Amino acid sequence: MSPNAVVSPAVTHPVVHQALELAQVIDGHNDLPHRARNIAGYSVEGLLAGSPFQTDVDRLRRGGVGGQFWSVYADSELPAVEAVQYTFEQIDFVYRLLDRYPEVFELARTGDDVRRIWGRGKIASLLGAEGGDSIGGSLAVLRMMARLGLRYMTLTHNYNVPWADSATDEPVLGGLSDFGREVVREMNRLGVLADLSHVSADTMRDAIRTSSAPVIFSHSSCQALCAHPRNVPDDVLASLPGNGGVLMVAFVPMFLSEEYDAWFRGGQQGPRPPVTVDHVADHVEHAREVAGIDHIGLGSDYDGFDDFPEEMTSVSGFAPLLDRLAERGWSARDLSRLTGANVLRVLDETGAESVAAGRR
């Protein structure tokens, strides 16, 4: 890595400094575009420091973030045409963000792009659409989004799409429809990763069987530790080495702690159950044990929820997590796989040739 790369001053453990020299954090999921739509009219101003969001440049730097998948999200309840428009508006927000802060952010499509951008001391910015609603049932829309740099699409959000079952809706298909499998194959061709966060366990299994490329979970945690339907069962985690995919552990308290989830679903009566950096570290270590060290990453979901674990309330929160894992005995090499190297491998394996096809 270039000596110009920024190492987080919020990190205290020397092993973490070594890890970030090998691979900075590539965060799988940040909802700033949608949050900016809701509370700032898509303004890109005021994001250097002290923003009203959980995300700004100063806190990204302090968190050790060198790569960010920006989520471009359309509400599942929108009509198809509106969902497509909504998603394109959020892609436009990301492009305007890059134009407004060219000294900080640069668009990345491939692993080599990320490395080049790191070498310039900037934050690589990648696009991920959250929910198959975003393409409005049209492969042509998917192809156009790929031309704009889309690198993953979450197959569903909280509700089913006509071609895939969601984790948080009543199952209809038992996985993917024939068209859903066609969507996955076209994503493979275009270099758009199939993101299996939010989908049902049967859809996860069906998509992994269908996909000829590595899949990702951009922001999910482990069902064995917290039985939330958004989390990933161990049999699916165990299948990732055969596929080459990566689980990017989410920081949302409902996915980390069954006590918190019950409290939240029960109307938030009484004291909030504590959720700490150790809850996140436990999920990371469970994923490492089941899927293996080469198949884990981090996908925060910052600006997608209002409450996060203690010490991890903004994008600077990667630093205390990495420090805690180092305290638990992680080596610099293994931490670097978690922070970014595993995702870089996936980008490399689905990279230049496939992405070029998406531009044609």
Q: Secondary structure elements and their pairing?
A:
Layout: H1 14-22, E1 25-30, H2 32-40, H3 57-62, E2 65-73, H4 80-100, E3 105-107, H5 111-119, E4 123-130, H6 139-147, E5 150-154, H7 178-190, E6 193-195, H8 201-210, E7 216-220, H9 234-243, E8 246-249, H10 253-256, H11 258-265, H12 277-291, E9 296-298, H13 318-327, H14 332-349, H15 352-359
Helix pairs in contact: 1-14, 6-7, 6-15, 8-9, 12-13
CATH class: Alpha Beta
CATH architecture group name: Alpha-Beta Barrel
Could you tell me the CATH topology label.
Answer: TIM Barrel
Weakly predicted, low-confidence segments = 1-7
**In total, how many beta strands?**
9
- Total tally of structural domains: 1
Estimate percent helicity.
Answer: 40-55%
Shape: globular
Q: In terms of structural class, how would the helical and strand content be classed?
A: alpha/beta
